[in-house]
TrEMBL record, chain A:
Required cofactor(s): Mg(2+)
Gene Ontology molecular function terms on file: damaged DNA binding; deoxycytidyl transferase activity; DNA-directed DNA polymerase activity; metal ion binding
Designated name of the protein: DNA repair protein REV1
Binding site for Mg(2+): D400, D497, E498
Entry keyword set: DNA damage, DNA repair, DNA synthesis, DNA-binding, DNA-directed DNA polymerase, Magnesium, Metal-binding, Nucleotidyltransferase, Nucleus, Transferase
Residue span, BRCT domain: 96-187
InterPro entries from the UniProt entry: BRCT_dom (IPR001357), BRCT_dom_sf (IPR036420), DNA/RNA_pol_sf (IPR043502), DNA_pol_Y-fam_lit_finger_sf (IPR036775), DNA_pol_Y-fam_little_finger (IPR017961), IMS_HHH_1 (IPR053848), REV1 (IPR012112), Rev_trsase/Diguanyl_cyclase (IPR043128)
Regions of compositional bias (Low complexity) in chain numbering: 15-33
Automatic annotation (TrEMBL), chain B:
Phylogenetic placement of the source organism: Eukaryota, Viridiplantae, Streptophyta, Embryophyta, Tracheophyta
Keywords: DNA damage, DNA-binding, Membrane, Nucleus, Transmembrane, Transmembrane helix
Superkingdom of source: Eukaryota
GO MF, one annotated term: DNA binding
Annotated compartments: Nucleus
Family annotation (InterPro entries): HORMA_dom (IPR003511), HORMA_dom_sf (IPR036570), Mad2-like (IPR045091)
Cellular component terms per the entry's GO annotation: nucleus
SUPFAM superfamilies in UniProt: The spindle assembly checkpoint protein mad2 (SSF56019)
Domain HORMA: 11-194
GO terms for biological process, alphabetical: DNA damage response
Name of the protein this chain belongs to: DNA-binding HORMA family protein isoform 2
Cross-referenced Pfam families: HORMA
Transmembrane intervals: 12-35
Length: 1208, 204
């Protein structure tokens, strides 16, 4: 020590400087020095100067050391001494800390949170060591949050085999005041890196060695019925070239493989046509509708593939397999194209026939349809269970059938009861099919689900293999649930053979007795046994069942449950896999952290779990490991996405094949959506593209080494319509720019699901269809039927909605009525008729649209009965219907009845004349104006607005074709003509501040425009601003936009005007008022422009809107532009009519963005324009935009920063 | 580090800002390489590596200049703080502009870690923005200039007298701006950009 100091003292005059700046190397003064330093630091800020131990090796200074090595040795020693001194100081000052890190010596690598200095402080205080320089001998743990890829790859040479741990290890250890095991804190990058490698190798090796293809073709997505489709079909040239017999050999072999990959598919070979025809078919038939309820099956049957008796199919299949076993290698021959999407034109329609997974997956829909009233029942009871949870008297029964799939099949074979039996789709002697379920005698032999028949038979030679019997499964499952619902009305179905019952309410009964009664009845009814677990929560009940099996029941008493020792004991040894919600992936992840039992899991902090596995999963793990489960019986997890994916046998020749396949896929997805009773808004198309260097995959017709590409888009209205799906899919597919020959897998997934009240949907369809039908029937003279409820003022926005809807329909836009309609008064949205006062007299009015050439004569007569549209009439409220009926002398009722019986086959095309419609509205408005005294009720206005909003919303969102201006004209007309009449009334009704009504008087509302042929108001001052304010933001913005340019300046006068109003319902944000509504393109989430661009004619703009969804931080234009650059855009530049318009709107977008960002974030603007500049070299479109907006940019930069932006 | 807790949030913000400016200005000076690298040493600030001047005069100049700004920043008077590099003719060659916006009405507790996160990105970006800057002529000179929204009232306080009004030469033409970093984390907004004379600037 003294040597050190004397040496440094000797090192010359520079040394004084050195010690001035850096930590003193003089140990004698160490304590006083460090104190001084600390006081210095306070003025300078925390780390500013704190403990920077590395003195720079100034080049001008002659080193006293012979070489670098000796210098470092010296330095390290000094650092160590220094650390010791500091440590002794700090531990002296704080006696409460115990040296938990004794023997631990950390080295901090790179940026960490908390910083290395803080970690050093912990080490100081808790008896550990901190190394500034890595040394294999002194360091025990490496702390880091992040490692570069090179270090990960070379982890050994980097770490020298030492543990690489996250800094939270130190923090958590300090928090619990003892040294925790570092294993759970191992760096994620490492933890996740190792296992993936190992799994990669094992999965590669096993198929090679065993000749087994385990590639998962079938993915079951989380919470979805997303099963894969597969198809197999053959290329023509193969059959021509190959010899039939040999070829047949191969085919069988391939079938076998196919069945490997997916235990639930069956192969049908069309025996006659296969070998002679140019295009031969081998169909993998799977049908998704298998378990849909009878009604929908009835509906689907005619449209989709004809049903074939499954027994014959399977037997045929077995025959095929028993023909021969061919060596594995033949399947890997050079001609691989024989099974593909190419040959089979109907392949998607033949699917999922005998899929067990699909049976389970779709079973829930079926169940829900059987017990539709349940969700409501749960709702009211949930609150009750919250209360009862406090009293800790909840009793949950978990009931599970014993080896369901086997016992159902063997119940008719009593002789098999004691024999080992397994269920498998095929009893092929080759034995490479997978066992799906085995009974208990078989399990005793070690036979498990997922095992190959061959292996199982090796374990138990007399194993009986039986095929599925889906009818029986359905039947038993139904019986099972009937019994459960008989005993208890709070049933949560987990699967077709497993359910939770909440029997808390059944206080009189002992849950144990109840469980035995249920089990007894199940056995009597179905001949199958069930096991039950009873406990206080779902988790414990589930675990109890586990111990109860087979055919028993287990009761974990509340006392036991809540005395933690008992539960802990029980859980401690429980393997993680037993916990519900922990699947392979999670288990694997935990295994990598050396967590195998609940007891081990409990050692990990909640925060750490949540950090590693996500908030919810982390919490779930933490709770479950402690036997805590807060789930309520009856909370059914909704599926988050529905989709279908095919990754096997995809080979396309040309675009046409692809389109055909996509159509089939869309049909399938649409069916699944309808099956689940949901509609989706976001559509993701996934494509597996063969990597350039990848050859034919080792697995026959498999996808091989692929790049996964995906594009997604979100539409404003949820849909399940095939045509919409198809359109979207086509569009999405267009984004990929891949060679169709390289495609190896296609998947379509629908997310952002919204549930559809199916009955409503049906109603809507009916009315739409009948409307279409009647419209086409009277194509020459169309009737617009409106019902006017005219009390004082009848305000009617009739048929517009419907007509818009129809229009959209005619243009292949699926439309759906808004699910939430204001006050629900527009009758579920499908009537299109708004009625203000049901008691008022209705006037039926027709407008002959064929002479819609500007003639606005009022026709107030009853139209002929045949001209009435039944769709509208039917959806009228019953009072109106009866009134109408009176007018027609009772004939209407018959007609309605008749129309209801009519089929749904006709689809007419309708053209739409918005101006005419608006004229109708004008007339009505006029009329209402003439009739005095006028007072528009509040509801009338609101309903009007809501009904306006709807078609407009639909217009702007759905249809790029409709000339949007017409709608806006129309709205303004309404605003102009209808609302003013009721103005005073609205004031009273709507305004909470009574005296602010004076503000309205300034808005002179002119009715002159009545005579004006131009439907657009000449000035916005004519528009009642109070109405404008009621409109939703987007609509308002659109409205202003649609104003002709020369009128636009008048908007600005509107701004301050509005400010004076103090309207309680003012929706406007202050910013948008300030800027005179110019910044409206960036308002909203997603911003307005996205929707605008999405419906644009120009591909470029649509593409750009799509980029919005692709980019991660979408509120920044720069990230969207970045995305645009990243995506290849080649053919977008085609000039078209809308070119100038598109340039203009893009320009507009940029201008507004500049305005938005120039003051606060010039960097963003700068980045955007640099990106634009780059884009402009690629695309003429962007060049034009760039040149157009650049002067504007410079002007605003100059205004705000007094300079010009320098864009290199 | 332990700032007084009784400070108002605004004063707190100003304190952080001043501290940050000191570090950032030092980094700028280091970046421009006016002094030899040996005049600086590596330190850690906000958990990133930064430079600190070793020469006491240099350090004091920067420190006193920015800490002298503190009262003005607290009042919201300071619009920009510039680090200006001059050639031998005292004509600016390059200016580093810190444009400050402190929301005066902001009065709630500031989340220091958020601010730190944003400010850290400045320091990181600054350390890699060498290519954006111009090579300085030799024998150049630099100074710290602050642009005020209005001229402060002259007071006899010790703090304020450090700052004097300046007649630094300005460019005739609007300069070329190259943004380096912007951040806007309520209530503090800082933008850093470079200014260079425009090509049309008359050469003297």
């Amino acid at each position: 020590m003294s040597l050190d100091s004397s040496r440094s003292a000797n090192s010359g005059p520079q040394n004084s400087k050195r010690s001035f700046n850096s930590n003193s190397s003089n140990n004698k003064d160490n304590s006083s020095n460090s104190k001084k330093r600390k006081s210095n630091q306070k003025t300078l800020g925390m780390a500013w100067g704190a403990n920077s131990l590395s003195t720079s090796r100034s080049s001008f200074r002659s080193s006293p050391y012979s070489d670098f090595g000796s210098y470092m040795v010296e330095k390290n020693r000094k650092l160590q001494n220094q650390f010791d001194a500091e440590a002794s100081n700090s531990s002296l000052s704080d006696t409460s800390t115990k040296p938990i890190f004794r023997g631990v010596s950390i080295f901090v690598d790179g940026f960490t949170v908390p910083s290395s200095q803080e970690l050093r402080r912990y080490m100081l205080n808790y008896g550990g060591r901190f190394e500034n320089y890595f040394s294999r001998h002194r360091v025990t743990h490496i702390i880091c949050s992040n490692l570069p890829d090179s270090k990960i790859k070379n982890i050994r040479s980097f770490s020298g085999g030492l543990p690489v741990v996250k800094p939270t290890w130190v923090l958590d250890s300090v928090a619990v005041n003892r040294l925790l095991s570092w294993v759970p804190y191992q760096l994620d990058q490492l933890a996740s890196n190792q296992p993936t490698l190992s799994t990669f190798f094992t999965s590669k090796i096993s198929p090679a060695s065993e000749g087994v293809f385990t590639d998962a073709i079938c993915e079951v997505k989380h919470g979805t019925e997303d099963l894969c489709l597969k198809d197999a079909s053959k290329d023509a040239k193969f059959s021509e070239a190959g010899e039939p017999s040999e070829w047949r050999k191969k085919i069988t072999e391939e079938h076998d493989e196919l069945m490997h990959g997916n235990t639930n598919s069956k192969v049908i070979e069309e025996p006659s046509s296969s070998y002679s025809e140019a295009s031969q078919e081998v169909k993998v038939v799977e049908r998704s509708n298998l378990v849909q309820d009878d009604e929908s099956r009835e509906n689907n049957r005619p449209q989709y593939c004809p049903e074939q008796p499954s027994a014959s199919v399977s037997s045929h299949c077995f025959d095929n397999h028993s023909v021969k076993e061919s060596p594995h290698s033949t399947a890997l021959g050079p001609l691989k194209q024989c099974h593909s999407t190419l040959g089979d034109p109907n392949f998607v329609e033949n699917y999922f026939k005998n899929s067990r997974l699909h049976f389970i997956g779709t079973w829930r829909n079926r169940y829900r349809k059987r017990f539709p009233s349940l969700p409501n029942g749960f709702k009211c009871m949930n609150s009750h269970s919250d209360v009862s949870a406090d009293t800790q008297k909840t009793a949950i029964i978990h009931i599970d059938m014993d080896c369901f799939f086997v016992s159902v099949v063997i119940r008719s074979h009593p002789e098999l009861h004691d024999k080992p039996v397994a269920v498998c789709h095929s009893d092929n002697p080759k034995g490479t099919a997978e066992i799906s379920s085995a009974n208990y005698p078989a399990r005793d032999y070690g036979i498990r689900a997922g095992m190959f028949v061959r292996d199982a038979k090796a374990l138990c030679t007399h194993l009986v293999i039986l095929p599925y019997n889906f009818e029986a499964y359905e039947e038993v499952a139904d019986q099972f649930y009937n019994i459960l619902h008989k005993y208890c009305n709070r049933v949560q179905a987990v699967s077709c053979d497993e359910a939770f019952l909440d029997v808390t309410d059944l206080e009189g009964e002992d849950p144990k007795l109840l469980a035995s009664a249920i089990r007894k009845e199940i056995f009597e009814a179905t001949g199958c046994t069930a096991s039950a677990g009873i406990a206080v929560n779902m988790l414990m009940a589930h675990l109890a069942t586990r111990t109860a099996k087979p055919n028993g029941q287990c009761y974990i008493s509340p006392e036991r449950c809540f005395s933690h020792l008992q539960v802990d004991e029980y859980l401690d040894q429980l393997p993680l896999k037993a916990l519900p919600g922990i699947g392979h992936v999670l288990e694997e992840k935990l295994k990598n952290r050396n967590v195998r039992t609940c007891g081990q899991l409990r050692m990990i902090s909640k925060g750490s779990l949540q950090k590693d596995f996500g908030f919810k999963t982390g919490e779930m793990l933490w709770n479950y490991s402690r036997g805590v489960d807060n789930r309520l019986v009856g909370t059914i997890q909704e599926s988050k996405s529905v989709g279908a994916e095919v990754n096997w046998g995809i080979r396309f020749r040309d675009l046409q094949d692809t389109q055909h396949f996509l159509l089939d896929l869309c049909k399938e997805v649409s069916l699944r959506l309808q099956g689940c009773g949901v509609q989706g808004r976001t559509f993701t198309l996934k494509i597996k593209k063969r990597r350039k260097d990848a050859g034919e995959p080792a697995k026959y017709m498999g996808c091989g080494d692929c790049e996964n590409l995906s594009h997604s888009t979100t539409v404003p209205l949820a849909t399940d319509d095939v045509e919409v799906l198809q359109r979207i899919t086509k569009q999405l597919f267009g984004f990929f720019h891949v060679d169709v020959k390289d495609i190896r897998g296609v998947g379509l997934q629908v997310s952002r699901l919204e549930s559809v009240d199916t009955s409503k949907q049906v109603l809507e369809r009916n009315s739409l269809k009948s409307w279409l039908m009647s419209a086409s029937a009277s194509s020459e003279e169309r009737c617009d039927v409106s019902s006017i409820a005219k009390d004082r003022v009848g305000t009617v926005i009739v048929f517009i909605k419907l007509r818009y809807a129809l229009y959209c329909q005619a243009k292949n836009f699926h439309c759906c009525t808004p699910t939430t309609n204001t006050e629900g008064k527009s009758m579920g949205g499908n009537s299109g008729v708004l009625c203000t006062d049901p008691v008022g007299n209705s006037v039926l009015r027709t407008n002959n649209t064929s002479n819609g050439d500007g003639c606005s004569n009022q026709i107030l007569s009853i139209p002929q009965l045949c001209h009435l549209d039944m769709g509208v009439v039917e959806s009228l409220p019953s009072e109106l219907q009866s009134e109408l009926n009176e007018m027609y002398g009772g004939k209407l009722v018959d007609l309605i009845a008749k129309s209801k019986g009519q089929g749904e086959n006709s689809t007419g095309s309708l053209c739409f004349h918005p101006p005419e419609l608006s004229k109708v509205a004008i007339e009505e408005a006029e009329r209402s104006h003439n009739s005095d005294p006028i007072s528009l009720s509040r509801t009338a206005v609101e309903m009007m607005l809501s009904s306006i909003v709807f078609p407009v919303g639909m217009m702007t969102l759905c249809s790029p074709i409709i000339c949007a201006e017409n709608v806006f004209c129309f709205i303004i007309d309404i605003i102009l003509f209808v609302v003013p009449k009721g103005k005073q009334h609205i004031l009273e009704e709507l305004q909470t501040v009574p005296d602010s009504g004076t503000g309205f008087n300034s808005n002179a509302i002119s009715i002159q425009a009545l005579d004006n042929n131009d439907l657009m108001p000449s000035s916005l001052s004519q528009v009642d601003t109070s109405v404008l304010q009621q409109l939703p933001e987007e609509l308002r913005a659109d409205l202003f936009e649609s104003l002709p340019a020369h009128r636009r300046q008048e908007i600005s006068t509107l701004g301050p005007n509005r400010d004076n109003l103090h309207h309680p319902l003012c929706i406007n944000q202050p910013e948008s008022t300030d800027s005179g509504l110019t910044n409206n393109l960036w308002i909203g989430n997603p911003p307005l422009w996205v929707d605008k661009f999405k419906v644009s004619n120009l591909l470029m703009l649509r593409f750009f809107a799509d980029m919005y969804y692709k980019s991660k931080s979408a509120e920044n234009l720069s990230s969207i532009l970045q995305c645009t650059i990243a995506e290849s855009l080649h053919p977008l530049d085609a000039k078209c009519d809308a070119w100038n318009e598109a340039v203009h709107s893009f320009n507009e977008l940029l201008m507004e963005y500049i305005k938005l960002k120039i003051v606060v974030d010039i960097e963003e603007i700068y980045v955007c324009f640099r990106l634009l500049r780059r884009l402009s070299t690629k695309s003429e479109f962007f060049l034009e935009v760039y040149n157009l907006v650049f002067p504007h940019l410079q002007a605003s930069v100059d205004e705000n920063y007094g300079g010009n932006l320098h864009i290199p | 580090m332990e700032r007084k807790d009784n400070q108002s949030p605004r004063g707190h913000i100003a304190g952080i800002l001043v501290e940050f400016l000191e570090v950032a200005i030092t980094s700028v000076v280091f970046l421009k390489g006016i002094y030899s690298p040996g005049a600086f040493e590596r330190r850690r600030y906000m958990n990133v590596v930064v430079q600190r001047a070793r020469h006491p005069q240099l350090r004091d100049y920067i420190h006193s200049a920015v800490s002298g700004l503190l009262p003005f920043i607290e009042k919201g008077l300071v619009e920009r703080v510039a680090v200006i590099f001059f050639n031998t003719d005292n004509i600016p060659v390059e200016r580093f502009m810190f444009k400050l916006t402190v929301n005066q009405s902001f009065d709630s507790k500031v989340e220091e870690s958020d601010l730190e996160f944003s400010l850290r990105s400045f320091l990181i970006k600054l350390s890699v923005s060498q290519p954006l800057t111009k090579v300085l002529p030799c024998d150049c000179r630099w100074e710290i200039t602050a642009y005020f929204r209005s001229l402060p009232q002259v007071r006899n306080s010790k703090d304020t007298e450090l700052w004097i009004s300046t007649d630094t030469k300005q460019w005739q033409q609007p300069p070329l701006i190259t943004p380096i970093k912007s951040m806007n984390s309520e209530p503090l907004g800082v933008q850093l950009f470079l200014e260079h004379p425009s090509p049309s600037e008359p050469k003297s």
